[in-house]
Design brief:
319 residues; alpha+beta; Methyltransferase, Cobalt-precorrin-4 Transmethylase, Domain 2; Immunoglobulin-like; 10-stranded mixed sheet; 4-stranded mixed sheet; 7 helices
């Protein structure tokens, strides 16, 4: 939260600050100002201060307001005419024997673009679907470039692979349905936008040097979630995930990758990871020179193919 007194004394109109000498007589103008400020690219709280005249010389004339407004009245007006919902508060402050009002528009409004949900004719005319944005100290109708920035900002995700080895392990599990396969793979996932993104599915493609897909392994969870029966990863705006994804892996995959009975592969692989969010957007990246190894009961088909039964293989290591 910015300091209101400091803004009154030192601030000048810009993307996050507007001064009004008088309170709004035209509610259409109010709606345009609120919408424009909310769509501003500034990432902190924004303010419309009532009762202050910002002169060209840079001086401020403190005029004050006669009556304080009711927050509920303006909140209802905005809710009925702008979508999505905008979070803001109306407050008053005493300054130099005057009462000033101000609207504080929360930085948590990160679901841009905000636009008119219906036509408004009680004052300044606003057409349904119009979207206003504040640039510097001016409100203007959003153009194509503005929408590109809105949506790029909302889905600005960087995905990178941080592992060059996938080690598939079979872990003893009391579950009567059999042992558990543990196949972690570390990634770095950064949400550089302001909106929360929920990743709901994903998979890993393992390819040979000719780009031929050898295996497709689903993502069944991640290391930060206790229950890994289904994949779900929530990433708030400006947040980061740097940890293991957990891959599904089967004994047939070991055969497709050409593993020997010790779980070793003579080849290096190229892997591509694809994640999908709840809105159907896909995010992908790839990594070359990945080593894949396996150990434990997941190798039982490889061993059988190579003439090693389970008991003979165990006896090898007892000698």
């Amino acid at each position: 939260m910015r300091d209101i007194i400091y803004l009154i004394e030192n601030g000048h109109e810009n993307e996050y600050l507007d001064f009004k000498a008088k309170d709004y007589a035209d509610k259409g103008e109010f709606l345009i100002d609120i919408m424009s400020m909310t769509n501003s690219m500034d990432e902190d709280d924004k303010y419309i201060i009532i009762g202050v005249k910002d002169k060209i010389s840079g001086e401020k004339e403190i005029i004050g307001i006669e009556d304080a407004k009711e927050q509920a009245e303006f909140q209802q007006l905005v809710n009925e005419n702008i979508e999505p919902k905008i979070k803001f508060e109306y407050r008053t402050i005493q300054y130099k024997d005057k009462i000033l009002g101000y609207y504080e528009i929360s930085k948590d409004n990160n679901d841009r673009p905000y636009m008119a949900k219906k036509q408004y004719t009680k004052g300044r005319n606003i057409r349904q679907g119009e979207c206003y944005i504040r640039k510097n100290s001016t409100n203007s109708i959003a153009i194509r470039r503005d929408y590109d920035i809105f949506y790029h900002e909302r889905r600005d995700v960087k995905l990178s692979i941080k592992d060059c080895v996938i080690l598939v392990q079979t872990i003893k599990d009391p579950n009567p349905f059999g042992p558990c396969v543990y196949a972690p793979f570390k990634i770095n996932l950064i949400n550089r936008g302001n909106s929360k993104i929920i990743f709901s599915s994903g998979y890993l493609l393992i390819k040979d040097e000719n780009e031929r897909v050898l295996c497709r392994n689903g993502i069944r969870g991640h290391a930060q979630r206790e229950e890994n029966r289904e994949f779900k990863l929530e990433l708030d705006g400006k947040d980061q995930f740097l940890d293991d994804l957990l891959l599904s892996f089967g004994s047939e995959d070991c055969i497709r990758l050409g593993m020997d009975e010790y779980g070793e592969c003579s080849d290096l692989f190229k892997v591509e990871i694809i994640l999908e969010d709840t809105e159907g957007n896909e995010y992908s990246t790839n990594q070359e020179g990945v080593i894949i190894r396996a150990e434990g009961d997941i190798l039982h088909k490889v061993r059988r193919m190579r003439g090693f039964n389970k008991f003979a293989f165990k006896s090898l290591f007892k000698k």
